[in-house]
Amino acid sequence: MNRTTILYAVLLALALVAPFGVYPVFLMKVLCFAIFACAFNLLLGFTGLLSFGHASFFGVAGYVTGNMLRDYGWPVEFAILAGVAAAAILGTVFGWLAIRRTGIYFAMVTLALAQMVYFVCVQAEWFTGGENGLQGVPRGALLGVIDLNNDLSLYYFILAVFIAAFWFIHRTVTSPFGQVLKAVRENEPRAISLGYNVDRYKLMSFVLSATVAGLGGALKCIVFQLTSLTDVHWYTSGEVVLMTLLGGMGTILGPVVGAGTIVTLQNYLASGAFASSVPIVLGFIFVVCVMAFRRGIVGEIHAFVKRSF
Amino acid sequence: MTEHGEYMLETRNLSKEFRGFLAVDDVNLQVRKGEIHALIGPNGAGKTTVFNLLTKFHMPSRGQILFKGRDITRAKPSDIARQGIVRSFQISAVFPHLTVLENVVVPLQRKAGLTTQFWRSGKALEALHGQARELLDWVGLADMADTVTVELPYGSKRALEIVTTLALDPELLLLDEPTQGMGHEDVDKVVELIHRVAADRTVLMVEHNLSVVSRLSNRITVLQRGSVLAEGDYDTVSNNPEVKAAYIGGQHAESA
Ligand SMILES: Nc1ncnc2c1ncn2[C@@H]1O[C@H](COP(=O)(O)OP(=O)(O)OP(=O)(O)O)[C@@H](O)[C@H]1O
Ligand SMILES: [Mg+2]
What we know:
The complex is a heterodimer. By secondary structure, chain A is mainly alpha-helical. Chain A has helices at 3-17, 24-47, 55-70, 76-98, 103-123, 125-128, 151-174, 176-186, 188-193, 198-224, 234-247, 254-271, 278-291, 296-308, and strands spanning 141-142, 146-147. In chain A, strand 1 and strand 2 form a beta hairpin. Chain B is α/β, with parallel strands linked by helices. Chain B has a six-stranded mixed β-sheet with strand order 7-8-9-4-10-11, with helices on both faces. In chain B, a hairpin with a 2-residue loop joins strand 1 (7-18) and strand 2 (21-27). The termini of chain B are far apart. The site of adenosine-5'-triphosphate has 11 residues of chain B, from helix 1.
């Protein structure tokens, strides 16, 4: 057994007992955002593309899943799949339009497209509930048997999906495809001259990232029985950037740690007298992160461990 | 058109304009099969730009490019490699944070079609390690296989770059200043390597070091301010008064 295996075993054990010590809804929120951030990291950390429109995938998947559950009575598994599929389709459209641009232009195109999605969501009240959000989504029952209204059952379901998503991202990054992404990130002209049509691989990565981001949004809708305009707002796109950077982009665990830290901070601040200061605190963290420790929490720990042993 | 048979690569009136500035002006190149053809000329003559045009990193403003008689003027850059033309870059082009072995696996996995499988384990690539090690062995880098490439000495990086290119078994190799910035020993090694590479391939190379050019090339084209100044074998070109003047005017008399 190597150190990594032990680390994951400990984390899994902690995750299994956590809901007995911590409020399960809070834990589920962390897991949903962790999935979102892991998906985002595939694009930012492992493909080198900064999307500023990922909230679209997160939010739209939530709306689709919510509608399917509430208004069409779909089983929860299929409702989630529908949400994920919607994110994949939307991701293909975004990716296809944005992938030819590089750097800041890429970020701008994704932001512009996401703003369009946001305004459509504001208008399409029949689908999104407008300002009120899509409320009263039933959680349903897993396989028609396990009642997800029980927070504990839902938690274990979401934990299982999270583990699958985490494994999926890890697999992608270490797969032959992941190796191509690495080569493209390291030296794009060289990859082209070796015959790689790099846009194709970037597009694939974008779609995979959007799809998994959608999974996070679909689950979040089930946990809170609600998807609102906040979920498609650029603020949420920014949040996932922050989670990824804070945790450590390009590290496998970083986004999970980042999501945990940010969600914890939000909950902590929102319950106190500082509710309105959340954006300021997050902004401050962002600045410190960019200026002082660029590798993020997990990246810095990696570097520290490397130096010391 | 019988003469097409003997040319691996041909350009016709190849030109490139950058916002009104003619970097490449009406260049007609003919690279014969199996030869080492050198493209020389002072700094800023347009040599790298010609390479960028040939590999479609830039679109020509005018003119045509023929590879084995086929028009490739409109091909996509990634298709160029698939057709059999692979280039190296003036600034050493390796994947710095991949291991030496992984560098060679990158082109091999493309040929093997192991590029889009995001669901497969990375172990699938191990099937290519044998072939990669053989290639590394060929340039004497087998011992360094697991080294992270940034840590390689400069000369070895260039050798790695060439062998990465060879992994695709190209018919035509474009080398942009393969000996630039090297000491004598490394230069000799690379010259020997190019010599071996060219045994069953065509090579077009840009090179400043005239002793390398004289040792390796069958044919030389001299470029100046974007257009062809002279062409021929080493003796013809080096005795051409215009070339002499251009080289005395420039600062490249050093290794002549
Ligand atoms: N992308 C570009 N945009 C504008 N001008 C360019 C571009 N690429 C090259 N040039 C110009 O074209 C001319 C030829 O450049 P090129 O790099 O081809 O020269 P070179 O012969 O390779 O020189 P060197 O020996 O220094 O490598 C130069 O004047 C350069 O400034
Ligand atoms: Mg050059």
